[in-house]
Amino acid sequence: MSYWRNSFAIAALATLGLAAPVQADFNDKSPITATVTGATPSGYPRTMVEGLNAVVRDIYPGSAVSFKPNSPGGGVLAIAEDKADFTATSTGTEVRLANDGAPPYQRSLKGKFSFAMMLYDNQFIHFLMTKEWADANGVRSWADIAAKKPRIRLAINRAENPQTTIGGPYEVMKAHGFTIDDIPNWGGSFVLGNSSTGLNAIVDGKADMFMNARNLGDSLIKDIASKRELLWIDGDPAKIEQAAAVYSGKMDMVPAGTYPFMQKAYPTVRQWVALLVGAHVSDEVVYKYVKAIAENEDRVKKIGGSLKTAFETKKMADNPAKLPYHPGALRYYREKGMVK
């Protein structure tokens, strides 16, 4: 009888072993391979991605972690279609539009990407106009624009970059009673492009108004303001909050003195920026990428820009859009008590 009992016990243990394999240990230094996208070929976003990738490569020697240029909107599509692994410039705008399958996305991407980490939450949309144009049209605020319907030459990004168009300026306009489509109806026009393109248009006298994201206290804007007087478009904080909340952003006040032409604080849309990851990426790759960044906070801050002022390991699991965590990221956050 003891033989049969022992045989049964061995078989039972073997069965249990098959049903519940031991979880792999990712706390080694073996290399990983990943592609990070979402940033344009030049400018701070690329600097940020290259800096993050360098941290990961140093922690896991031999890793092939590379950068693939793209836009914030295009980055989400790329990770959803297995053309890249991570995208590093996503806001609540891209998350909601991609999940809903709303333009610029042609179909819902829900379930094809998930949350890896919060990078920073201090991306501020700048709403600027030239003083010359403002004086000529009697405009100081969004309410003035809605009431007077002036001819505006607006420097703004393309809709394919949703966070600085659909998720910011477009919603602020709606909250004040007009839309982006009204501008040409008022005799206006657009200079479409990134923030550098828009600021160049202001300098060259080809635009009256600028709407895009820049770091607060941006040196280029200060330099431009010394050559061509600028003003911040004033607004009702409650309406700005209404606009920001549509895509899980928030209203914040830009402090007086941030730029020489600001004699008081002005409301604007403040956005968070997160690293997202495709559903196809392994738990090990995501765990190791997250761990490398989380455990090298000082080095990440030295990358500069928004990371210098707003990146904190303790905030990496913050997830305002309530997007599902990738299992690899969730495993790390649970181990550190950052997520229950």
Notes on the protein architecture:
It is a single chain. Residues 1-20 have low confidence and may be disordered. Helix 2 links the parallel strand 1 (33-37) and strand 2. Helix 2 packs across helix 12 (283-294). The protein has 15 helices and ten strands. The two termini are 47 Å apart. Strands 1, 2, 3, 4, 5, 6, 7, 8, 9 and 10 form a ten-stranded mixed beta sheet that branches. It is elongated, with a radius of gyration of 24 Å. It is 41% helix and 20% strand.
Overall CATH architecture of the largest domain: 3-Layer(aba) Sandwich
Q: pLDDT below 50 for ≥5 consecutive residues: which ranges?
A: 1-20
Q: Decide which structural class fits the backbone.
A: alpha/beta
> Could you say what the CATH topology of the largest domain is called?
D-Maltodextrin-Binding Protein, domain 2
Assign an overall shape. Answer: elongated
The domain count comes to 2
* Main CATH class of the largest domain: Alpha Beta
What's the story with the biggest beta sheet? 10 strands, mixed
Helix fraction by DSSP (H/I, runs of at least 4): 40-55%
Order of helices and strands: HEHEHEHEHHEHHEHEHEHEEHHHH
Assign the CATH superfamily of the largest domain.
Periplasmic binding protein-like II
- Beta-strand level of the residues, as a percent range? 15-25%
Count of distinct strands: 10
Compute the separation of the termini in Å.
Answer: 47 Å
Q: Compute the gyration radius: what is it?
A: 24 Å
Specify the number of helices: 15
Mean pLDDT: 93
